[in-house]
Design brief:
14% of the residues are buried. The chain has 113 residues and is mostly beta strands. The protein is elongated, with a radius of gyration of 21 Å. The protein has 1 helix and 11 strands. Strands 1-2-3 form a 3-stranded antiparallel β-sheet, with no helix packed on it. A hairpin with a 2-residue loop joins strand 1 and strand 2 (22-24). The chain has one helix at 36-39; strands at 17-19, 22-24, 31-32, 58-60, 64-65, 72-73, 78-79, 83-84, 91-95, 99-103, 108-110. Keywords: Hydrolase. It comes from Paracoccus sanguinis. InterPro entries: YjdM, YjdM_C, YjdM_N.
Length: 113
């Protein structure tokens, strides 16, 4: 067998084996589909709990000072075409009049389109 199977995502065991169309672990009994864990990312929610997706439009709910500048992102600023990223500032966007920056999802609210 030339293909090495990935370790179990639950317990880390290297003794995984193919089971029908998926993979299984003999040590903990966990079964999963290969590649299924890659597509799962944590949900990003706005300040009121709406799930955000790439390309959504949001509004800023609080005046935000721009670090290293005297500029301020005002309340009600509409930001179109957001992109979700990993990290503390989980929204990457272009704000009109300011430029490219990262925002925290707790300071935005999704706009119903």
């Amino acid at each position: 067998m030339t293909d090495a199977l990935p370790p179990c995502p639950e317990c880390g065991s290297s003794f995984t084996y193919a089971l029908d169309a998926g993979l299984a672990c003999p040590e903990c009994g966990h079964e999963w589909q290969p590649g299924a864990g890659d597509a799962e990312a944590p949900e990003v929610r706005d300040s009121v709990g709406n799930v955000l997706r790439d390309g959504d439009t949001v509004t800023v709910i609080k005046d935000l000072k721009v670090k290293g500048s005297s500029a301020v992102v005002k309340v009600g600023t509409k930001v179109k075409g957001i992109r979700l990223v990993e990290g503390d500032h989980d929204i990457d966007c272009r704000i009109p009049g300011i430029g490219q920056m990262g925002l925290k999802s707790q300071f935005v609210r999704k706009v119903a389109e």
